Amino acid sequence: MGRKAEKTHFVRVRGVSEWPVDLSKAGKLTEGEQKALNILHQLCAFEHIFMEFFAGLDGLKISPVRGSKTLKYDRQELFINPQTGNQARRNDQVGHLENIIKQITRSQKSRNDNLVPNIYLDRLEKNFLDALHNPFFHLRQSAEVPGQVGLFVKPGDTGPPSNLDGIRFELFSLPRRITDTEENGFLDDLTFDYKHKKRGEKEAKNYILIGLGMARVINHHCSNHSVEWTFEPNALKFEEKGKIGRMVSKLVKQSRRAFKPGMEIFGYYGDEFAQKDCICSSTSLHESTAETNNAVPGLSKDYDRGDTPLEYPVSRADSMDLDGINLEGSSPVRPPRLYRTPSCYEVYRDKALSQRRKDHVRRRDKKRKSRHESEDDSQDEVEYVGTKSSPGGITSSRRTRSSPLKQRRMVGSEDEEFDIPGIWGRPREQEEGDLDEGGDVEVLASNASSRPSSPSKMMKILNQIAQLDGRVNSHLNKLEFHENSLDGIISRLVDFKENIREERKEVERCREKQKTLMAQLKKLEKGKGKESRRDTSHSRTPAIDLEDADGDRRSEYGNRKSSMCSSQ
């Protein structure tokens, strides 16, 4: 298949200015990949219709951001409830709202230029129908993320405890060779990185997923997050000749978290997003603190939801580390905006983030200097064997848990610090803290002086260090063996799961063939019934015995002959 020449297409966006978009990406995309991108653009624009509809149900003047920056559909005439003649609202009859959602899907299927398969449209329709049937949540403008829509628990709810039924992600993968979503016209804030291993492949490959559905309106908070989303391994199902994969991700409420009436539901996008991009009220994980007074300004409340979605502040993570699943684009240097000039909001945001990074560098240098002076690099809690002299002069060994930055174990009566360097270059006490619970090693008792008094004691201590090092290496080898065994078991389980899926598909195909053959058998039986009825009708007509007829003719001839003889 020949490669396309480089072209720049102008895609018309209703209500948005025309943006030049390089859809062919320097002529490197195949025809199948280009078709897949066009399908995904239409899919994002179609999903945004539902988001606008639900924003209207809850009386909002803005709607969530749109996944496609190059295509927008205007179907607001479908948001009118025919029973009332007005804009549909949340308190209208559920049946009427369901009909509107289904009408939106039919309007997309009936378009002559529609490229989206019906199975994708039906999945998004089902997503929002299920969200409509959840009575506990609605959309409101977020106070933590200015100018953005969030998911809230309805106020004054006296029913059963709130649940997350019907709130989920519908995820669709881009062609695997697509690595820059911004250059191909997609909003990077709605994308995830995902590793998937197809059947027969030795290693998993990276895919970029676009997160659609009601779950994508959940914003980030560093400390007040109450839900998380789970991604099943190797769950992509591919259509469109393997260019587009789809999967579902459900939300899970964190333990010890309660949904209170009127509260906003938050998730956690990851440490990198919290440090570099988050502007929530909790500053414990931010690179800058509240003293900088460099909060990113919000947008005016007067803008309309038909505005360019890039004018809205960021609500989705640029990076997320969750069991190997990352959000796309974790670099602190954002890709250039190819489609328009920066807004005033972006100018203020970049200026504020730049100042925040300068403050972070200043505090980091100060912290490094203080660490150098104290000669202590670790702030993590470590477990190590300490010695303590009893009143009778006998030294006992015990385990203590402490932070090396806050406390050091003093050996001897003169309170003089003495750290013997370990085999790996760390202090002796820290390496002893890596032992398992059953690995206590007796430490020689020290005298009144904090340093060894003879070379023989030093040699014994060094021998003990060598023994510990051997035990550590032995445990590390066993640990590596068990990890490799676990990886092999997981790989086999994944293969078994793929085999089960294939066998189920084969069973379904066999059942379909059985149904077809049974139908053919019934037709043949009906044909045989008709033939048997015709045979019975023929049997009712009297049959002539040829032998009897021949005998009658012979007797008649004999009678005639005898009568002639008698007459003579």
From TrEMBL:
Gene3D superfamilies: SET domain
InterPro entries linked to this entry: SET_dom_sf
Comp. bias intervals (Basic and acidic residues): 522-538
Domain of life: Eukaryota
Residue runs in coiled coils: none
Biased composition annotated in UniProt, kind: Basic residues: 354-371, 398-409
Region named Disordered: 289-437, 522-568
Protein name per UniProt: SET domain-containing protein
Gene source species: Kwoniella bestiolae CBS 10118
